[in-house]
Amino acid sequence: MDSKCLNCGVTSDQVVLMSCQYKGESLFVCVKCLPVLIQGPH
Ligand SMILES: [Zn+2]
Asked: Dihedrals φ, ψ of 2, to 5°?
């Protein structure tokens, strides 16, 4: 299974990825991008 961060595209070989759901789809986001998604772009 090839899971990549939806924001920056890194794989779970490089960083910790978190599984999440959005609009019924399973997505992955890395720990670096998670705060960005929570806070939104500045
Ligand atoms: Zn990322």
From this structure: -105, 90
Contact 21, 36 (CB under 8 A): no
Rounded distance from Cα 41 to ligand 1 centre (Å): 14
Domain residue spans in the chain? 1-42
The reported pTM is 0.74
CA–centroid distance, 8 to ligand 1, in Å, is: 4
Q: 1-42 pLDDT, tens per residue?
A: 679 999 999 999 999 999 999 899 999 999 999 998 888 876
In the reported structure, the alpha carbon of residue 25 is separated from the centroid of ligand 1 by a whole-number distance in angstroms of 17
